[in-house]
Write a structure and sequence with these properties.
Helix content: 55-70%
Number of helices: 6
Distance between the termini: 53 Å
Structural class: mainly alpha
Number of domains: 2
Order of helices and strands: HHHHHH
Shape: flat
Number of strands: 0
Length: 150
């Protein structure tokens, strides 16, 4: 029943976003068809698939045991807080610092050793920062490291 309720809510959200995306026009467009088709296609697919899940016959639905124990709920809460802080602090701290901290928390949540998870997170954040700012030409915020990164 939970999956049907969630699918129904997701269907409602996808329809609202579809209405919003339908009227989207960009002032400058490099593509002949513009930026509208991508979100529209994704939202139409989401609406179709959530409709199938929400209204499928009961004989096709399996009972899902979520297995929510206290440690799992604790990890879900920590994960949600970490991702929320990532979104809030992304511009302030910058890509490298916020990504390192968030990936480190996720690494520890998935059972990694604290030091190894931090080192791997730092390497990943620095490497992807230079990949995006270099060859991919996508500017990411430097944040508190602006004096060092330039």
């Amino acid at each position: 029943m939970v999956d049907r309720i969630f699918s129904g809510l997701l269907l409602l959200v996808s329809l609202i976003l579809l209405v919003m995306a339908w009227g989207y026009t960009a002032p400058i467009s490099y593509d002949p068809i513009g930026p509208r088709p991508y979100p529209v296609i994704i939202l139409v697919l989401l609406a179709i698939l959530t409709t199938i899940i929400a209204f499928r016959p009961a004989k096709l639905a399996e009972k899902i045991e979520l297995g929510l124990t206290k440690p799992i709920i604790k990890n879900l809460v920590i994960c949600t807080i970490a991702l929320t802080l990532y979104a809030v602090l992304f511009e302030i701290l910058g890509y490298i610092v916020s990504t390192t901290l968030t990936a480190w928390v996720m690494g520890v949540l998935f059972g990694g050793k604290t030091t190894k998870a931090f080192i791997a997170s730092l390497i990943m954040a620095v490497a992807t920062y230079y990949l995006f700012n270099g060859p991919l030409e996508v500017s990411l915020p430097a944040g508190v490291l602006r004096p060092i990164l330039g």
